[in-house]
Amino acid sequence: MLDTHKVENIDVTVLRVLQGWRASGQRALLATVVKTWGSSPRPVGSIMALSETGAVVGSVSGGCIEDDLIYRYRSSHTGGNVVHEIPLGKPQRVVYGVSADEAHRFGLPCGGTLELVLEFNPDPDLLHSLINELAHGNMVERRTQLATGDVIQQQVSTPKALTDDGNYLSNTFGPEYRMLLIGAGQLAECLSSMAISCGFAVTVCDPREEYLNGNSLPGVTIARGMPDDVVREFQVDRRSCVIALTHDPKLDDLALLEALDTDAFYVGAIGSRRNNDARRSRLVEHFEKTQASMIRLRGPIGIYIGSKTPPEIAVSVMAEVLAVKNCVALTRDMAVGPAKDLSNLRVA
After folding, report:
1. What is the pTM for the complete model shown?
2. How far is C-alpha 300 from the geometric centre of its chain's CA atoms?
3. 134 near 19, Cβ under 8 Å?
4. Does the residue 268 lie in any domain?
């Protein structure tokens, strides 16, 4: 049984709010970061939307560029008439931070330059179709012809980097990243809060009512079934991670067995090296796993920061999850076991 409280990633939120503005008849624009030079507050592919009222959702900078866009494109009232500053034409390019003075004025880091493509008054029906595809877990490439503003959308199976060849702007939108935590408790509470702030939709699975009742998990989906059933119901994909936190083999092992047979980008379990070694032995002895089949199982999870408290452990785990998600190779010295050994040698 799932108690669902929907949490969206920022791209979906931007698209949904933009679609609402356009469906209500408001003029609005969609801004996409297409190129950066030097340091930049937001990565390529970041989006924001601006309505004719000056309302903004999403971000392309630390705030100063948003302020400039509002100044340029917000509707004004003159003599009782509304002057629409958001045009009806084709997309436009705008570059911020060419000079040091301009970079400073727009709050860009030293040497930072940002190029945006502005699409004016996107079709609300196409936006609705895009949002609907994302809501059903599909990945969609949105391709804009820059000479006309015409948009083509199609499902794709793998994420693609943003491309801008001067004729077409292509940006891929995918369903949000998801985190399934096995076991409620203080660590789950801390980790879920961090994951939500990083754009993950979080589900906490725990069939033990006493653990669920004693914790505050705002914005989290609660699953009360047995972990193996919940993992199957969760429909784990390559944008999902599964983390076991209970220290109870009856719960953790069941979830991990199911998760290891999925496309999850991260599967791991809390516990000491001894506990993790014992877990691997159980899975080999009783569940016909092999060491090769468990190569994706992470544990002890997290990067070594000397963490002792649940909030610090959550920071450690979240850092590793984000590194794996972002395809950052972690050195062996950052893993909990080897780093502890190295730390002990230094102390000795």
Report:
1. 0.66
2. 24
3. no
4. yes
